[in-house]
Each structure stands twice: as C-alpha cells, then as structure tokens.
Design a protein that fits this description.
Layout (H helix, E strand, L loop, with lengths): L1 E8 L14 E5 L2 H11 L6 H4 L1 E4 L4 E5 L6 E6 L12 H4 L9 E2 L16 H12 L7 H15 L2 E10 L4 E8 L3 H4 L3 E3 L3 H9 L2 E5 L10 H6 L5 E9 L2 E11 L7 H18 L4
Parallel strand pairs: 6-10
Antiparallel strand pairs: 1-2, 1-5, 3-4, 4-5, 7-8, 7-12, 8-9, 10-11, 11-12
Helix pairs in contact: 4-5, 4-9, 5-9
C-alpha cells in the first residue's frame, strides 16, 4: 500500500497552472487507482478517465491531462523516499473503477504537461476509411503489415511494428515490422511484462515516451538486437475480444519532431482495426 499526492490543476497558460481543488493524499495499491479515486472525490465525471493523457516520468511524477477540458492532474508517490512508482497489475487495470484506453504522451523534463496539440479530424476520418478497406483474408502477418503501411502514410515515423502476445511462450513477439530494423526484429520476442509494451499490456493504456533508454521500463535489448536507437516511442494497445493481446508501436518521428495528438489517435485507430482483423485471421 502506497500514498499518492494528487493535485488538480487548470489548463496551463503563461502564468502557469491554476489549482482547482485541494491536494489529496490517497492510500492505494497503484497510481491508476489513485487517479480514479481522485476523479471521484473531486466530483468529476467518471468518463474523464477515458479521455485523459498520462505522462510517466522517471522523476517520480505522473502528469495527467484531459484534452477536452484542459484540466491537469499531477500525481506522485510520497510514501518514503525510495519507493518507485508502482505499475498497475493486470488485475488492477481491469478493476471496474478504472477504465481502459488511457493514453500517455511524450515525457520531456522541461515540458511537463505540454499539449500534444489539436486533433485533425479530417486526417483521422481518411485513415479510418482506408483501414476499413483492408481485406479480411490472409495471415496475421500480412494483415498487420498492410495496416502498418496505411498508418505510415498518415504518421511520419521512421518505424512501425505490431507486437502480439504468445501466451504459450510467455512472451510478446514482433508480428510485423516496417522500417530500418524490420529484418533484425522479425520474430524477436520480449518477455511478458517487460518493456514499454509491458506497461501498455498491464494498463490497457497508450504510452508515448521521449528518450525511452532513460526510462526504467525500456527493454534495451531490442535496441541492441536491432542496432537501432529509439528516440521516441508511441505504443497503443491491441485488443481481441476485450483483452489486450499486443500493441502497435511507432518509433522516431521524422526530422526529430514530436508525435502529435492526431498521431496518437491514428495509432489507436490502427490498433483497433488490427484487433478486429485478428478476430477473423486465418
């Protein structure tokens, strides 16, 4: 059991954040339960947790923003000096009070809580239409590659991949890869629960991290295997019949830029479509 400090702030402006409610101190097993509890205690709609964007840092804080209202929540574990942020377990993430589909944007020490920007609805509509045209026949590998090809038309990323759970082998396997590391990563596995993909699968959350090598959850063996340096990683859950069974990952926006809110939603659209295709894969 840990104690988490939760602050509710308004949208950031030139004057900085504005506190909207008293700071809460909540004892619970993990930060997702603390966030859910705080949302209820502040009298906000429970659906808020379906919209929030969560920013995980190695500095012991989690910055959460609601893109609809501009409100922000800042959480940190305060019980002791050496207690790391507890990652939610698979059981806690499926708790009835904690909805799935939470996203985590890029972490940058000097820009905590920075916005991913506005959403380009027209782009997302075109992407959804193109994904809907994907054929329903063929292997999982072929379907995954086709979805990645469409996604990369809309998101300027150097690499993209689909990882899929192999329960029998207790690992997550690279099912399909596009980009410079496609060859070395074909068939490579990550132990269940490890890496950023492990966070995605435990929480049912999308995660966007700048400089993953500096993040405790990063599985550095993949970079060593591929010889490819991951500067920015965006990972979104793939669900099959309601269960998270993998992830779509995008690496390194072209030109050293940042992934945007549109890119996040585009990746989630592709992940949902891949999950739907897996239901009928041969």
């Amino acid at each position: 059991m840990a104690t988490f400090e939760v602050r509710w702030e308004g949208a950031r402006d030139d004057a900085g954040p504005h506190d909207l409610g008293a700071t809460l101190y909540i004892q619970t097993d993990d930060w997702m339960h603390a966030l859910s509890n705080a949302i209820e205690r502040y009298g906000l709609e429970r659906d808020t947790i379906n919209r929030v964007v969560c920013l995980l840092s190695d500095h012991g804080t989690i910055d959460v923003s609601d893109p609809d209202s501009g409100s922000r929540f800042v959480l940190r574990q305060v019980e002791g000096d050496n207690h790391p942020i507890d990652r939610p377990s698979r059981e806690s993430s499926s708790n009835g009070r904690v909805s799935q589909g939470i996203d985590a944007p890029s972490w940058h020490p000097s820009r905590v809580g920075s916005s991913l920007g506005p959403t380009d609805e027209a782009v997302l509509q075109r992407l959804a239409a193109d994904l809907a045209k994907l054929p329903t026949g063929g292997s999982v590998h072929a379907r995954s590659l086709a979805a990645l090809d469409i996604l990369l038309r809309y998101v300027p990323a150097e690499s993209a991949s689909v990882l899929r759970l192999d329960s029998a082998a207790a690992c997550v396997r690279f099912e399909a890869v596009r980009g410079p590391a496609a060859g070395p990563l074909k068939g490579v596995t990550v132990p269940v629960g490890r890496g950023i993909v492990g966070v995605v699968m435990r929480t049912g959350s999308s995660v966007l991290v700048q400089e993953p090598a500096q993040n405790a959850d990063h599985f550095g063996a993949i970079d060593i295997t591929s010889g490819y340096r991951t500067r920015t990683l965006l990972a979104c859950p793939v669900r099959l019949r309601g269960q998270v069974i993998g992830a779509v990952e995008l690496l390194n926006p072209f030109g050293g830029g940042r992934f945007s809110e549109t890119h996040r939603q585009a990746a989630e659209l592709a992940a949902r479509r891949i999950g739907a295709l897996l239901r009928t894969a041969s």
